[in-house]
Amino acid sequence: EWRAVATRYEKTAASFLGVLCLAATADWLRR
């Protein structure tokens, strides 16, 4: 069960980082 939680957390962290990267890139492009 802990493995499923770890996998879900990794996916969440990955998607969060992806959104963060997209936002940073969009902000950088807007300047």
Automatic annotation (TrEMBL):
Protein name: IS5/IS1182 family transposase
Organism encoding this protein: Dankookia rubra
